[in-house]
Specification:
The complex is a heterodimer of chains A (592) and B (187).
Chain A: H1 4-15, H2 25-34, H3 47-53, H4 64-72, E1 87-88, E2 92-93, E3 101-103, E4 107-111, E5 114-123, E6 127-136, E7 146-152, E8 161-169, E9 172-180, E10 188-196, E11 202-214, E12 229-233, E13 236-245, E14 249-258, E15 262-265, E16 269-274, E17 279-280, E18 283-287, E19 293-299, E20 306-312, E21 321-324, E22 330-332, E23 339-343, H5 376-393, E24 397-407, E25 418-427, E26 433-441, E27 447-454, E28 457-460, E29 466-467, H6 480-490, E30 493-500, E31 508-522, E32 531-541, E33 547-556, E34 561-575, H7 580-587
Antiparallel strand pairs in A: 1-2, 3-5, 3-11, 4-5, 5-6, 6-9, 7-10, 8-9, 10-11, 12-13, 13-14, 14-19, 15-21, 16-17, 16-20, 18-19, 20-23, 21-22, 24-25, 24-34, 25-26, 26-27, 27-28, 28-29, 30-31, 31-32, 32-33, 33-34
Chain B: H1 2-13, H2 17-39, H3 42-58, H4 69-88, H5 98-107, H6 114-129, H7 133-144, H8 149-155, H9 163-178
Helix pairs in contact in B: 1-2, 2-3, 2-4, 2-7, 3-4, 4-7, 5-6, 7-9
Classes of the chains: A mainly beta (592), B mainly alpha (187).
Chain lengths: 592, 187
């Protein structure tokens, strides 16, 4: 049943205050002019890397599960930053992107068997360029024919031509013509495209108009043809489409493209390394909605250098699938070795592009939050845990920290049901972490995932993702005190019992069980049980205060518990130096 | 219309701002008016609508363009307006039974003269002003956006049930709060 008159009545009431002349477009455009559009594909941010590597110890009970979800999404898709730092694809770096112009509408002309399509027109206060795709064949011999372009301004003057370049892409000829900057406020241009033989004999010509508009903040432009490097297997190509370098960084645009009509599902990334096996962090800054085109930001790369771009699919290569849109057939891309060799341009080689490897954390040290006062019995336990933690927090060296994590939920993706995480952490005298290596392995010892961090920079060697804003942090093996603080804040119930330590003989532990309740039972879509709350359980050795296990669980409406994950301490030691392979690995990370 | 929306969403997903312009032009009026009916403040209604467009643009990649855009967007606006209304008017008390307002809205379908139409409109306008934000949101969803009872229940995070259940629940809560029966005419 509809309520057309009721709807009309309400519309009339609202119309008294909200007239039809309403226009929010200007307000929204003004907003995005100051807050660049960041189209996100999920709720992920850079801090997830911290969540992944730093355990879940300081989270309130109920948010622990959100953190677990973040772990499951560690391989998630891209978040976009859009056009950044003055880089315009197909144009290069612009000193003034606010004055940049682009094509208002498509332009295409077909005459005598030849088709011209203006792929792009871009300009700023320094220059103007037009890229035109030419397809079809001329009636007469055109083997040695060359195209030229003359641009006439509205006042009849020609625009100064600077240079041109062209490339053949299959049956298409793509030419880019570079000119001097357009006068201010010019938005309409007359173009005269001519194809001539060396003797100036004109084979074909056409006149047409272009209209321009201002480039909006963070507007994305289509990449131009002619990849810099390409690797093809079974109808699929991994292509490096463009590469551009500023003084501080390099942008690389990569694409997975099919020769046939196909749709890609699943996420992918690339790892960038050079012939000496050094890794260059790639920060994903943009991805298209079809998941076929990605832009990465790398450190300022040297020129005349051979690079290797390797496709990665995490955690399971089966995750990357394609569907042939014509036949409807799905095919997995598993087992393919995707590697792209590319040599950076010689002109990139300049002294100021020298790469350095910082060995100390340089970011400001955050102030730790003030601690809340704990009930006396809780404080005693906290003191015991803190006392034990001092050994790890004070004094420079390398901390070797190994834990196992059993995840009993049925969450897909990562982590799998059982992993062992080995951490090597270089700490300074106050326990601040300078460099780190994290390795996840399965029960059989197979390496699943490996990440490195140097100062604020991190790179996941398995997925290729890089992170540039890792906040400084101090190592702590005290899982208990943050949990006690959290319980005070949230009003969680705490039961303290003396019990045998898990997996040991003749050892006694304090077993602490924290329980929190939801305001009302919650039933997640697709599940047949309701949750009334969540809880944590921590085991701390009575003799030395070492926290050796923590567990998170859901509390079901029927009073039972469903354990979500269990993390167990396997090894904790402090050494003067790590194994050579750890140092070798760290030495390979290129940090800007 | 849905095909045009789908194209606009796809354009926005590719980073083409023209897609957002299209969606704003198409839905801003309905959205601001829906928000106004809940908030009773034009500026706040425009702010809420603008914020919702911005949120939608930022998270457009999560949106499956095969789904219709309009219901998704307008429901988001109503939710945002409701949140804001609750935020700025926590102490608001309803002094009218929502059943009365429903009766007047249903009566609008049988109005024959312009004078009668204007009387009903004035009654509804007055009644709206005296409802709680949540009730106004329920009225907007049901009678302005023409959502089904099931869609409304889902949208307002209610258990599966009917809109009558939802509205009755609001009414019962009001009675508890005020301790009296509120059924009266606004005339």
């Amino acid at each position: 049943m509809t309520h057309s008159n009721a709807s009309r009545l309400l519309d009339e009431i609202a119309a008294q205050a909200v007239p039809e002349t309403l226009d929010l477009n200007d307000r929204i455009s003004a907003y995005f002019a100051h807050q660049p559009l960041q189209i996100r594909t999920d709720g992920r941010n850079d801090n997830n890397w911290r969540i992944f590597v730093h355990t879940l110890r300081s989270k309130p009970l109920l948010t622990i599960f959100l953190a677990l979800l973040a772990i499951a999404l560690v391989t998630g898709a891209a978040y976009a930053l859009g056009r950044l730092s003055g880089y315009i694809p197909g144009f290069g770096f612009s000193q003034d992107t606010s004055a940049a112009l682009t094509l208002l509408e498509p332009v295409e002309i077909t005459r005598d068997g030849l088709t011209l399509r203006v792929l792009q027109a871009l300009g700023d206060s320094q220059r103007f360029s037009v890229t035109i795709q030419q397809s079809g064949t001329l009636l007469s011999d055109s083997q040695s024919a060359q195209p030229s372009l003359v641009i006439t301004l509205p006042d009849g003057r020609p625009l100064e031509f600077v240079e041109g370049s062209g490339s053949q892409d299959g049956s298409f000829l793509v030419n880019t013509f570079h000119f001097a900057a357009l006068p201010a406020d010019v938005r309409d241009l007359s173009l005269h495209y001519t194809i001539s033989q060396p003797d100036q004999n004109i084979l074909w010509q056409a006149e047409f108009h272009l209209r321009l508009r201002s480039l909006r903040a963070d507007e994305q432009l289509p990449a131009l043809p002619s990849p810099l490097a390409e690797s093809s297997h079974g109808g699929l190509s991994l292509r490096l489409e463009t590469a551009a370098r500023s003084a501080d960084f390099t942008l690389l645009e990569l694409a997975l493209r099919f020769e046939r009509r196909a749709s890609l599902s699943g996420d992918w990334n690339v790892v960038l390394s050079d012939s000496q096996g050094r890794f260059y962090p790639l920060q994903l800054v943009n991805a298209d909605s079809e998941n076929t085109h990605k832009t990465y930001r790398a450190p300022a790369l040297p020129g005349s250098t051979e690079f290797l771009l390797t496709l990665t699919v995490f955690p399971d290569p089966h995750n990357l699938k394609a569907i042939d849109l014509d036949t409807g057939q799905a095919f997995s891309l598993q087992g393919e070795e995707w590697a792209l060799f590319w040599r950076s341009p010689a002109e990139w080689d300049s002294p100021q592009a020298a790469l350095t490897l910082p060995v100390t954390a340089t970011a400001p040290i955050p102030v730790e939050p003030a601690l809340l006062s704990l009930p006396a019995a809780w404080q005693q336990l906290s003191n015991l845990a803190t006392q034990n933690d001092q050994h790890w927090r004070v004094g420079a060296g390398w901390i070797h920290y190994v834990t196992s994590t059993e995840t009993l939920s049925n969450a897909q993706g990562y982590p799998p049901p059982f992993i062992v995480t080995e951490q090597w952490l270089e700490v300074d005298a106050q326990g601040w972490v300078l460099r780190s290596v994290y390795s996840d392995s399965d029960q059989q010892g197979n390496l699943l995932q490996q990440s490195l961090a140097v100062g604020n920079y991190g790179i996941n060697l398995t997925t290729g993702e890089a992170f540039t804003d890792i906040a400084p942090w101090q190592f702590s093996a005290d899982w208990l005190t943050p949990e006690l603080q959290s319980a005070v804040k949230s009003g969680a119930d705490l039961v303290i019992e003396s019990a045998p330590c898990p997996d040991t003989e003749n050892e006694t532990c304090w077993q602490l069980t924290f329980r929190e309740s939801l305001p009302a039972p919650v039933q997640n879509p697709g599940q047949n049980v309701s949750y009334q709350g969540a809880g944590r359980r921590i085991w701390m050795r009575e003799r030395d205060g070492a926290v050796i296990r923590q567990q998170a669980f859901w509390r079901l409406e029927d009073g039972s518990e469903r354990v979500d994950f269990t993390q167990t301490l396997l090894l904790l030691e402090k050494l003067a130096a790590p194994p050579p392979e750890v140092l070798d690995l760290l030495a390979k990370v290129i940090v800007p | 219309m849905e095909e045009d929306d789908r194209i606009a969403v796809c354009r926005l997903k590719r980073g083409d701002w023209g897609g957002l312009d299209t969606l704003v032009e198409r839905y801003q009026l309905k959205a601001v008016r829906a928000a106004f009916l809940i908030l009773r403040d034009v500026q706040a209604a425009e702010d809420v609508t603008q914020e919702t467009f911005i949120k939608v643009a930022r998270h457009i990649k999560r949106f499956d363009e095969r789904r219709p855009f309009a219901p998704y967007f307008l429901r988001s606006v109503v939710n945002a307006a409701l949140d804001m209304a609750i935020l700025i008017s926590r102490q608001e008390r309803a002094s009218i039974d929502i059943e009365f307002l429903e009766e007047r809205l249903i009566a609008a379908d049988t109005v024959e003269s312009e004078a009668e139409w204007n009387t009903v409109k004035r009654d509804v306008q007055h009644a709206l002003e005296q409802l709680s934000p949540r009730q106004r949101a329920a009225i907007v969803m049901r009678y302005y956006l023409d959502l089904s009872e099931k869609e409304m229940a889902a949208q307002m995070n209610a258990r599966p049930g009917t809109v009558k259940w939802l509205l009755n629940e609001a009414r019962a809560r009001l009675r508890d709060m005020l301790g009296v029966s509120h059924r009266r005419s606004v005339k």
